[in-house]
């Protein structure tokens, strides 16, 4: 009986590839995991656990920062490639994504983008270091049904909180995510809703609350169909 590899097996494969600076092997492992376990599991149980393992080894001196850069670069490449082959949006409602004004790291934001698009959601992703004023410019143009602000740099959390507050003041539902919002102080001063679960859970919450499925195709009653068929015969 065939047994699919566990997520931890893929994490080990990725770690081996990182040690040898083999980005193609990292991407191949993610492709295989996606085909075997699905996109949601690949993101939540392989991509981010692998990043945490490599980060821990870097902190302890077992790996170099170059290894961490190889991994994050390979994963960014893979997410972009995976996003490029997804079908066009099918649901109503656009979600606006942005990193905090001083946040450079966007892999988690891009992964959320990928999971939303895989659910048929239209996404506008402003990426790294989005100023508050620019976020509001996009807000007025896109008219999103919800906004997500992501910040993973606690030392620059205050500007990200200002982004969340600006969206809330504009009357648009806003969510925040990332380690910058882990402190109770910033949570109490952020009017939005925290996304504390997995990326799969976050994508499901946003999709169900702020987008709607496409309308069902209209079906002619059988008698009308027969009449139209007879008339055209």
Give keywords.
Rossmann fold, single chain, 233 residues, alpha/beta, 2 domains
CATH architecture of the largest domain: 3-Layer(aba) Sandwich
Number of helices: 10
Oligomer: single chain
Secondary structure: number of strands: 5
Low-confidence stretches: none
User: Quick check: average pLDDT?
Assistant: 91
CATH class wording of the largest domain: Alpha Beta
What is the makeup of the main sheet?
Answer: 5 strands, parallel
**Could you say which structural class the secondary elements and strand pairing correspond to?**
alpha/beta
The shape is globular
Strand residue content: 5-15%
Count of discrete structural domains: 2
Radius of gyration: 21 Å
Question: What is the helical fraction, as a range of percent?
Answer: 55-70%
CATH topology description of the largest domain: Rossmann fold
Overview of this protein structure:
- With 233 residues, the chain is α/β, with parallel strands linked by helices.
- The chain folds into 2 domains: 7-84, Methyltransferase, Methionine Synthase (B12-binding Domains), Chain A, domain 1, CATH 1.10.1240; 94-210, Rossmann fold, CATH 3.40.50.
- Helix content is 58%, strand content 9%.
- It has 10 helices and 5 strands.
- It has helices at 7-19, 23-37, 39-60, 65-84, 107-118, 132-142, 157-169, 184-188, 199-210, 222-232, and strands at 94-99, 122-125, 146-150, 174-177, 193-194.
- Strands 2-1-3-4-5 form a 5-stranded parallel β-sheet, with helices on both faces.
- Strand 4, helix 8 and strand 5 (193-194) form a beta-alpha-beta unit.
- Helix 4 (65-84) packs parallel to helix 5 and helix 5 crosses helix 9.
- The termini are far apart.
- 35% of the residues are buried.
- The mean pLDDT is 91.
């Amino acid at each position: 009986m065939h047994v699919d590899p566990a997520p931890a097996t893929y994490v080990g494969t990725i770690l081996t590839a990182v040690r040898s600076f083999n980005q193609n092997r990292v991407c191949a492992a993610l492709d295989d995991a996606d085909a075997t376990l699905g996109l949601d599991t690949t993101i939540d149980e392989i991509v981010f656990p692998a990043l945490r393992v490599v980060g821990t080894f870097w902190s302890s001196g077992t790996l170099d920062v170059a290894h961490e850069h190889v991994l994050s670069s390979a994963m960014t490449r893979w997410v972009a490639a995976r996003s490029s082959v997804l079908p066009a949006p099918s649901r109503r409602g656009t979600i606006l994504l942005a990193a905090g004004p001083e946040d450079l790291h966007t892999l988690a934001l891009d992964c959320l983008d990928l999971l939303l698009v895989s659910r048929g959601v239209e996404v506008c992703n402003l990426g790294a270091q989005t100023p508050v004023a620019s976020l509001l410019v996009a807000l007025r143009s896109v008219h999103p049904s919800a906004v997500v602000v992501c910040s993973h740099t606690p030392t620059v959390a205050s500007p990200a909180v200002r982004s969340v507050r600006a969206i809330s003041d504009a009357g648009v539902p806003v969510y925040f995510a990332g380690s910058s919002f882990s402190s109770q102080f910033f949570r109490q001063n952020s009017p939005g809703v925290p996304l504390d679960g997995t990326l799969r859970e976050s994508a499901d919450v946003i999709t169900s609350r702020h987008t709607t499925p496409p309308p069902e195709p209209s079906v002619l009653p059988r008698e009308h169909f027969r009449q139209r068929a007879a008339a055209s015969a």
